[in-house]
Task: inverse folding
């Protein structure tokens, strides 16, 4: 990716809510949206919820007033969960997985310097 653009937080859609949305630009010019589900330490990542939010964003982009204006190839489902003080666990899912999302990558990241509020 050569560019990451923050789009919006707290997007309420008919069949899902997206905590954060980003637009990615690849070196070859392809654009993707990222639908992020954010979870606190006591919450769990629920894959059907991540899938539903990504699908709702894709439906909005392909059938709503934004159709064609973003020129995106698809939506990448993504989840991030706080697991410790300034430590997050991230999970990226296959954008072509539909309701049966497959994990593409995951990592646990320690933020340095620490970030207030991530605990």
Result:
């Amino acid at each position: 990716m050569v560019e990451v653009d923050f789009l919006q937080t707290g997007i309420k859609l008919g069949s899902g809510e997206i905590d954060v949305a980003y637009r990615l630009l690849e070196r070859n010019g392809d654009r993707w949206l990222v639908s992020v589900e954010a979870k606190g330490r006591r919450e769990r990542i629920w894959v059907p919820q991540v899938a539903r939010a990504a699908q709702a964003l894709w439906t909005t982009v392909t059938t709503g007033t934004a159709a064609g204006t973003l020129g995106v190839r698809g939506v990448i489902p993504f989840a991030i969960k706080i697991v410790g003080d300034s430590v997050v666990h991230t999970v990226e899912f296959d954008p072509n997985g539909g309701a049966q999302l497959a994990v593409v990558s995951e990592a646990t990241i320690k933020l340095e310097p620490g970030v207030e509020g991530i605990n």
